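agent> step 3/5: call structure_predict on target 'Signal transduction histidine kinase' (Lophiotrema nucula).
agent> reason: downstream docking stage needs a structural representation; sequence fetched in step 2, passing through unchanged.
tool.input:
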Amino acid sequence: MAEDRHDGDIMSIPGATDSIDAATFEQILEMDDDEEERDFSKSIVYDFFTQAENTFGKMDTSLEEKNLKTLSELGHFLKGSSATLGLTKVKDSCEKIQHYGQRKDETGTKDLASDDEALKKLAAAIKQAKTEFRDVEKVLRKFYHDDS
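tool.output (status=ok):
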């Protein structure tokens, strides 16, 4: 049975339990026809990698341009994609980006004092989201036997 194999269980990979919601990711895996190849879930995950890279590039540009509205929209967009896969840390950081782009605190409840404060918090949150993305990307590549 594939679930019993060490390499068939994503949560057995170091770093997975901190960054992936097992129940959510398992729902994606259930759509695979072949538990050995996992072509369907792999295509979804690898499409997310590309989407995240592109979105982080747009965030960097928007940060340079001090475009809070676009940063909020990009945070919201990537939050949804990462939530769909159960990538909890990336989702949480993207939610902060969404709020900071609206000149709100990380919970979205209090107003920030200025655009400069929001931009400072955005720079830190984007950096954090990128780190969390790289960490979970390594876990997922290991799961799909692609350690490149």
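agent> step 4/5: record observation. Residues 115-143 form the longest helix (29 residues).
agent> proceeding.
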